[in-house]
Amino acid sequence: MFQKSLSYLKKFNLLTAERTKEILAVNPTIIPERVESTSTKITVYEFNAELFTEYTYNATNNYEHFTNSNIIKWINIEGINKQEIEKICTQFNIHYLVAEDILSIGQRPKMDEINNHLFCLLNMLYFNEQNALLETEQISIVLGSHYVISFQEDALRDVFNSLREKMKTATTKLRQSGADYLCYALIDSIVDNYFIVMEKLGDKIELLEEEIIRSPTTKSLARINQLRKELIVLKRNIAPVRELVNGFIKSESNLLNDNITKYFKDVYDHVIQANDLVENYRDMMITMQDLYINQVNLRMNEVMKVMTIVTCLLAPATVIGGIFGMNFEIIPYIHNRYGFFIAVSLMLLIPVWMIYIFRKRGWF
Asked: Average pLDDT for residues 242-271, to the nearest whole number?
């Protein structure tokens, strides 16, 4: 049983060590190597107040006709491939610096305005229930005159399903508005998903807190360390989004209508709220670590108190046995027929009297 627990702790420590390296090993001076997707899926949604059309293309199609139409378009690229991304950026006249940011990994969330395009880069967050780890997916969004292009790394998951459903209903605000509102809706969906991820992480923190109060173990301390690292990931990905959204609010680009500012201000408020919630979780983890130490010290004090009481109760018997066990020739009651019973009675009565005194003084 002990060997099994030891192997579990070694495995957990290895996991946390690798997680630390993964979180902190971010060096912007080193060009990271991206594992390119073997296939790229392009989904195009064309819509306005009257119509909605959905197309799916592979990497061999020509997208030039999408730059000329006045119908609002959302072009979603799933799977990052260098050749395909460069081709799309060339056809939409997207600056090569933006293309480099799209192809990069580990970027800090940011917003740029270049070549009549508004570009933003941020991370979608997911919570892995199996290993209680945060997973990130970088997404790049380019806003043009009548289109929005989004670049996703993972083709199997995103947080935009609610937007796809809204597009199918003609009376929604999304169908009645322009590309700038679509860009806002994409960012808002990503930010709203932060709260879902934080709620799941908060559940883990609450369960851990109950475990520490009930019966803290070495595993509890390891879980505290792990959750603190996940909060670092959360903070790193959420905090810069405030500057990103603020860039849209302060932008004077013709791509943004004046009335769109109020929507980005709403996202800004959500980001601030998310940042505050992350800070609260960080404070909880610090408090939880102190709670763990206090609980361990309390258990140690309880053990020491019990051992001290037992030692005190055995002290009279030790003294009496030591006195009558001395090798002197003349010892009182040494030859008395009731001497043994008197000694044993004293060994029992004195500890009982000591227990009464301890209880009366409230020592236990």
From this structure: 92
